[in-house]
Description:
The complex is a heterodimer.
Chain A: H1 38-69, E1 72-73, E2 83-84, H2 88-95, H3 100-116, H4 118-129, H5 136-148, H6 151-162, H7 168-173, H8 191-216, H9 220-228, H10 233-244, H11 246-262, H12 265-271, H13 280-289, H14 295-326
Antiparallel strand pairs in A: 1-2
Chain B: H1 3-6, H2 16-43, H3 47-53, H4 65-73, H5 76-107, H6 113-125, H7 129-141, H8 157-181, H9 185-193, H10 198-209, H11 211-227, H12 230-235, H13 244-254, H14 259-279, H15 281-290
Helix pairs in contact in B: 2-14, 4-14, 5-6, 5-8, 5-11, 6-8, 8-11, 9-10, 11-15, 13-14
Amino acid sequence: MTATPAKVPETADEPAPGPAPASKPAKVPHGHKRLLTRRDRLTLGLMAGVPTILHVALVWLTALASIALAFTTWNGIGFDSIQWVGLQNFRELFTSNPQFWPAVEHNVIWFVVLIVLPTPFGLFLAVQLDKQIRFSRVYQTAFFLPVVVSMAVIGFVWQLVYNPDTGLINSLIGANKPGHYIDWIGDPDLNLWAILVAASWRHAGYMMILYLAGLKSVDPALREASALDGANEWQTFKNVVFPTLRPTNTVVLVVTIIEALRAFDLVFVFNKGAQGTELLSILVTNNIIGESSRIGYGSAIAVVLLVISLAVIIPYLIATFRKERRA
Amino acid sequence: MSTVAGAHKQRTPIRPARILLHTFLVVTALAWLAPLLWALLAAMRPYSETSEKGYVSWPSKLTFDNFTNAFTQSDMLHYFGTTLIVAVPAVLLTLLLSSMVAFYVSRFDFRVNLALLLVFTAGNLLPQQVIITPLYRLYLLIDLPGITMSGKLYDSALGLVLIHVAFQSGFCAFVLSNYMRSLPHELTEAALVDGASVWRLYWQIVLPLCKPAMAALATLLSIWIYNDFFWAIVLISTGENMPITSALNNLSGQYFTDPNLVAAGALLTAIPTLIVYFVLQRQFVSGLTLGANKG
């Protein structure tokens, strides 16, 4: 279960069917499997089998194929042109590709920025909105709207802000005259940061919602006790509320890492990952939809992305599923 | 919003701290909406006016002309259609297949359950780019003459539906299995003893009880699949077959020469998601927190 198991029965704010959600999850005990007829077993096999085949074939087998292809060169025309080249793709990637290390660096920057700026800000907003204030929903909607809108659309909207000639910022500061341009999108020293502003804008709303859900599950009695003990707001938050948000923090951390690794749409709409905005995801994609289709090489980049992702996903899943088994 | 936490506390009378908080929230919320409002303003002004007076100027005329032009010039109705052809089957199939997996792992004590759930959950957390290269090749390899317009899985709505279902079912299976586990097992056990088939158990007993979770997931999935950009960009090559978000990207370079029109197009694209969100806000938010592990 995720860090938000308590949320499960709350879906749609309707009373959960059946007994209190607190009741221990129960399974049909082993013995009842004997009740299943052969037809039942076939039905069950198909019910689990069909989705699993689809999922495994399109997600996991292709991931494995990525790993295999990373050690080959292939022009994509006919299987006989696949050639085993060992570590050559990786060697080339690590040593001579001018875009690879910048891309890694940008992915790291993406994560650091998201975790340092919008994440705490989202938490801050959530704490403020959790205070039983009027119009809470209106505020929430304002902060959350960017999460609902497509990243591609967000890219277009922010281009209107950043456009050197007609954009909001340059128009406001008078930098839209020839010779005084600030080229937010074209300047390799600026563009990544400009895009990160848009990404953070979206991320803060997302984090706010996650933290709001987490805060809902904080026992109000804890806060009251703390207030009775004379703690001020900050002390209560630091010593009482924040520690109980630990499960939410784990989810937030994992979500943020994965968002940073997945980052793609905004950059693609802005400048297709040209100078200054290279990302691993963009490099992989450019190998497919660009003119030069170097399949093995693109797969090698994908493998790097896969390894980093799994380094996050595996410990996270082990931790959550272990907790579930204990429950 | 949270009535539970609020029940014990009276609404506090107006005090300076509250006024400060509201001021802060109003200002921040407006700043947050500024990019969208700016796009709206640009979209409502004629290009001739903004090119003459600049964008930061008092608008003398606000019209919906750009919206109408963007809508007709770029044949948006067609692209809403192509999106619908992908999104509707994808959402329904994802819910059907993932609920079957969830039923399997949560109501029976098979040895593979944990492994199965891990496979699904982990698959959904992978970045899409990890699998795209072989997937792209696979889609080009699969011939479907007469079934899809392109004759292949590549460049077809079917191809998009399949990858959406495969990818999103990981998340839904995880959420639904948690939900189904909270249903009392006596329900299904009794039916099983009475000789009901497992299909009946699933279709007539468990599934109807999962309606709230299904509604939340349906809302979430509709928005995610509608908003998809990546799969559509890579797996669809014919502009005409593209769903709306990628079509907009395609068109903005080709037809749109003025930013006001692009703004109008972008906002029009966002309208369906905004409608879904405003109508089903509750479902959307509860869905998101229900499976907070979603990237």
